[in-house]
Amino acid sequence: MSTIKRYLLKENHTTGKCEIALRLSVNGNTKHRLKSGLFVAAKYFDVKSGSIKRPRINNTVITELTTLERDLTAIETKLILYVSKRPTATKQELQAIATGQSVEQAATTQPQTLNIWLLYDEFINTYNSESGHNHRHTEITFKRYCAFQRYFKRLNVENVTDITTEFLKGFAAYLKSEKTLLLRYPTFAKSLGELGKNQRINDKHRNSIAVTQMRLNTFFNWLLKRDLISANPLAKIDHEKQEFATPYYLTLDERNAIANHDLSSESKATQIARDVFLFQCYVGCRYSDLYRLTAANVVGNYLQYIPTKTKGSRATVVRVPLTPKAVEIIEKYKGKQRKLLPVKSIVTYNRQIKKLLTICGITRNVIKLDNNGNEISVPINTVASSHTARKTFIGNLYKKVSDPNLIASMSGHTENSTAFARYRVIDDQMKQNVIALIE
């Protein structure tokens, strides 16, 4: 049996009303999202039942709402009747029924492109430069996988509707052995052309695979919300789970050593990188947020911003008190560029951070996971990045005040975030202090 559920689209700021959309489920399998062409103020719509509320106000409004409910019911009746006779009806046909257009007229309407790569471009353009860069990298990786399927299995995909769960089942396995495959089959590697050039192609670790799957899943969910696909082909595939070693970060002494080191003989770029890195250590923001900051984000003695990572689902404002040293860095670059600080690309910035730690003699070994998930010991200056600055802020705060929610309010994590569990490794001095309590 076919069913229909009503929901509201985004509010039109001019009229203050939302369009009512219909989620049509045909025999419990195929689902279509349709626009009704009818609008209502959100306060008159019952989200749970999908019915139109008719409060006891003036008669004119009651009449309008009663008519709206009647028109909606009429549309739903037509749709249910149509799919009962034609269960394979296309979305184009059903949208025509919903809006009172003839099916024949709808058939002549130019449909939206379903070309996967044109849509991927459109999807990436909805993100800022840093997040867009990450999604572009995932797109290129996915293009290589599609090329792999085409070369070895003669499976060609052009439209988003060509991507099935079966097609994606080998994606994780491909990522685990991509570099090995390219070395084993040089003719395939050559066939990639530009896709295989200027890319750091490696056999990926579980965390990299998990992130790649997550980003690709975001793309398919974006397609689903736009009704370009009827189901997310990744939904029924088990994703890799990320695993983390204990976070490594700089001690306060190491951070201060970087601040006090004489860099007068080093390049201007290295000196600027130190200031940007130290500022990030003082405020703990992600690189994607650091890149967006302007003078408008400084309010009094606080840095205020909405984290990019959670902006779409949880627009919480982060407020971080600015230390005198952080203010000093802001003043040093005030008015010299459009952004708050002269931030470079993430690749350049990370390279400069590694160089900075090397110059300052911060080369102690830390534990990280290799591509096989095994713990290995490596010099911190070879693996340090912008995220090391963020972890330095969080880790040192957590040592002083073990209140995850307080720190989350300044780091942009959600309340009760499980991320803080990784910072529970207590250093020797803290252990000694606790033992001293029972001497």
What's the helix and strand layout?
Elements: E1 3-12, E2 17-26, E3 30-40, H1 59-85, H2 91-99, H3 103-107, H4 116-124, H5 129-153, H6 165-168, H7 171-176, H8 178-184, H9 186-191, H10 206-225, H11 252-260, H12 268-283, H13 287-290, E4 298-299, E5 302-305, E6 318-321, H14 324-333, H15 346-359, E7 365-369, E8 375-379, H16 380-383, H17 386-400, H18 404-411, H19 428-436
Antiparallel strand pairs: 1-2, 2-3, 4-5, 5-6, 7-8
Question: Overview of this structure, please?
Answer:
This protein is mainly α and 439 residues long. It has three domains: 3-107, no CATH class; 116-225, no CATH class; 252-436, hpI Integrase, Chain A. The protein is built from 19 helices and eight strands. The chain has helices at 59-85, 91-99, 103-107, 116-124, 129-153, 165-168, 171-176, 178-184, 186-191, 206-225, 252-260, 268-283, 287-290, 324-333, 346-359, 380-383, 386-400, 404-411, 428-436; strands spanning 3-12, 17-26, 30-40, 298-299, 302-305, 318-321, 365-369, 375-379. The strands form three sheets. It has a three-stranded antiparallel beta sheet. A three-stranded antiparallel beta sheet has the order 4-5-6. A hairpin with a 3-residue loop joins β2 and β3 (30-40). α12 crosses α15 and α12 (268-283) packs parallel to α17 (386-400). 23% of the residues are buried. The model has no long low-confidence stretch (mean pLDDT 83).
